[in-house]
Amino acid sequence: MTSEPVTTSGPFDPPGVTWQRVSPRLVTARLVTAAITLGVPIVAGVVLGLAVTPWLWFVAAVPAAILVWVAIVVPRQVRAIGYAERDDDLLIRKGILFRSLVVVPYGRMQYVDVEAGPLDRKLGLAKVQLHTASASTDADIPGLAPEEAERLRDRLTVRGEARLAGL
Description:
single chain; alpha+beta; 2 domains; 5-stranded antiparallel sheet; 8 strands
């Protein structure tokens, strides 16, 4: 895991915060998922274009164009994902065009999940899911190494219990 010191400030970059980045293998996971999802209509369009009439190639062209767009955008999206542990809360930022910063106070956490699907396990990735007292503020950090996900889960659980005990 690499971290980058923040040099700017604003609503999405609080001063003095060192962001931890997610694994670059998350790019591969998202691109494989997109290729599988968009591959079916691409193959169907090619088959229709060859078997029925050539003007049905557009059925393959549209998802192929979307796949190219996804291949361009996903690496930037993954680089924009970061998290930071502070004394009283956890910060999670995402997005380039539509940015978001989620602040989860440790005392509001109810439980922390670690999830990994088959592709995630193959690529050595896991996702930490935070469940809070408010359903609308649940947050997740995808693309973590399993060891980092385990460490973060344990640390957040300890911090959450300590904050709840202090109430």
